[in-house]
Write a structure and sequence with these properties.
Layout: E1 16-17, E2 20-21, H1 30-38, H2 56-87, E3 92-97, H3 101-114, E4 120-125, E5 127-128, E6 132-133, H4 135-143, E7 151-158, H5 162-178, E8 186-191, E9 198-201, E10 236-237, H6 249-267, H7 277-295, E11 303-305, H8 307-316, E12 319-324, H9 333-342, E13 346-348, E14 356-360
Parallel strand pairs: 1-4, 2-10, 3-4, 3-7, 7-8, 8-9, 12-13
Antiparallel strand pairs: 5-6, 11-14, 12-14
Helix pairs in contact: 2-3, 2-6, 3-6, 8-9
C-alpha cells in the first residue's frame, strides 16, 4: 500500500491524497490518444496527456478570473459548508474527488473547522468513469476509525452528471459488499446536471480553479488506473515536482479561505439552502438531446457542457468545436484564447443554457 501521508504541494493538515505517486510517460500524440479512447482499445484512465505550464497570457486570464469570481466561489464554499454542517452531525470526513474536487475540499475543511467548529478530516481519492471509486481508498478511510455516516463526497461541479451517477452506483456496490451505509451523494459548488445530492449553486460561472490543472490542485495529475497499479494499491498519479516554483495551490486555497472567513464575519452564516436539482436535471437532459440532434453526435461522452468541462476539453482532449453564449463574457475569455491557440472553430448560440459547451472530435467516424 502507498505512503499514507502524501499531501502533494499542500500542507499535511490540508489533505491526504490516497493516491500512489508513479512515473508515467505522457501520450504526446493527442489524436492517437483520442483514437485509442474512442475505439475502446484503451481507457482514458490508463493514459495522461502532457501537462505544461500556462502561457503568460493564459496565466493573466487566470488571475483576472480569480479576481472577478473569488467572492462568488468563497460564498458558495461557505454555503456548501453550511449545507454539510446541517446534514451531518458530529465529526465530518470530507472525501474530495481528485483532482477538481481537491481545492474545494481543502477550503471546506478549514471553513468547517473555523466557522462551524466541526472536527473535520479531508482525504482526496480517485474516481474514474466506468471504473468506479477507489475501493482501497474507502477501506483505508474507514480503517482510520472514521464513521461511514461521517463521510461527505465533494467535487467542484457537475457537467452532465456522469461522475455523480458513477459515485452513487460505486458506493452502493461498496456498501452491498461490505455491509456499510456510506452516503454516495455528491456535494458540489455548482450542479449543472441536477445530479448532485447537494449544491450551493446551479450557475455556470467560472470557478477559477477549473482554469488550471496541476498548479492549482496540489501538483498532482489526473488519477491513473493501469497495469502498474496493483490490486491493493491506491489509484495512481504523477506528482509534477518540476512545477513547484509555479505552484498556485496553497495561495489559491488560502485566498479563498480568507474571503470565506471575511464573508462569515461580515454577513453572517448563509442559509443552508440547496439549489433546485430537478430543474437543473430537466435543463441538462433537454440540452443534451438537442445538442446530439444539432451536431449529429451519437456518443454523449463527446459533449461537455459548462465552463469547467469545456476547459478540460480544450486543455486535454482533441476539440471539434467550442460553443459559447456570449463572446464578450469575461468567464469565457480563457476558452476563446485556447480555441485561438489550437485553431478550434467557435460558434455563438445566444440561447445556450450554459456559458460554454465543448464538443470532442470523433476519432472513429468514417
Amino acid at each position: 500500500m502507498t505512503a499514507m501521508h502524501f499531501s502533494g504541494s499542500y500542507r499535511q493538515e490540508d489533505v491526504h491524497f490516497l493516491l500512489t505517486p508513479m512515473a508515467l510517460e505522457p501520450i504526446l500524440d493527442l489524436a492517437e490518444k483520442e483514437r485509442l479512447i474512442q475505439s475502446g482499445q484503451r481507457h482514458y484512465s490508463e493514459m495522461l496527456s502532457p501537462e505544461s505550464l500556462p502561457s503568460p497570457a493564459y496565466l493573466a486570464l487566470f488571475q483576472s478570473a480569480f479576481a472577478a469570481n473569488r467572492l462568488q466561489m468563497a460564498r458558495d464554499c461557505l454555503r456548501l459548508a453550511a449545507l454539510i454542517a446541517a446534514r451531518r452531525s458530529g465529526p465530518v470526513t470530507l472525501v474530495s474527488l481528485a483532482r477538481a474536487g481537491t481545492p474545494v475540499g481543502v477550503i471546506l475543511g478549514h471553513v468547517l473547522r473555523q466557522v462551524f467548529q466541526r472536527e473535520c478530516c479531508h482525504y482526496s481519492v480517485s474516481i474514474i468513469r466506468d471504473r468506479g471509486i477507489d475501493a482501497n481508498a474507502l477501506q483505508h478511510i474507514l480503517a482510520q476509525g472514521h464513521a461511514p455516516e461521517a463521510i461527505v463526497f465533494v467535487d467542484g461541479w457537475t457537467g452532465k452528471g456522469v461522475i455523480s451517477r458513477e459515485l452513487r452506483q460505486a458506493v452502493n456496490d461498496y456498501n452491498a459488499r461490505h455491509g456499510t451505509a456510506i452516503d454516495g451523494g455528491l456535494f458540489v459548488l455548482s450542479d449543472l446536471a441536477g445530479t448532485a445530492a447537494c449544491a450551493a449553486s446551479s450557475s455556470d460561472y467560472l470557478i477559477p480553479s477549473s482554469i488550471l490543472n496541476a498548479t492549482v490542485s496540489g501538483l498532482v495529475s489526473r488519477s491513473v488506473l493501469n497495469a502498474q497499479i496493483g490490486a491493493d494499491d491506491f489509484h495512481g498519479c504523477v506528482y509534477y515536482e518540476q512545477f513547484e516554483a509555479h505552484d498556485q495551490s496553497r495561495a489559491f486555497a488560502d485566498g479563498l479561505l480568507a474571503d470565506a472567513l471575511a464573508l462569515a464575519a461580515n454577513e453572517g452564516l448563509p442559509l443552508a439552502e440547496a439549489s433546485d436539482a430537478a430543474a437543473m436535471a430537466a435543463r441538462s437532459q433537454a440540452y443534451m438531446a438537442q445538442a446530439q440532434h444539432d451536431y449529429g453526435v451519437e456518443d454523449i461522452n463527446l459533449i461537455k457542457p459548462g465552463i469547467g468541462e469545456a476547459t478540460r476539453v480544450l486543455l486535454r482532449r482533441v476539440p471539434e468545436r467550442l460553443i459559447v453564449r456570449d463572446t464578450t463574457a469575461p468567464d469565457v475569455a480563457h476558452l476563446l484564447l485556447l480555441a485561438q491557440e489550437k485553431n478550434i472553430p467557435v460558434s455563438v448560440q445566444a440561447a445556450l443554457p450554459y456559458q460554454a459547451v465543448a464538443l470532442i472530435r470523433s476519432a472513429v467516424d468514417g
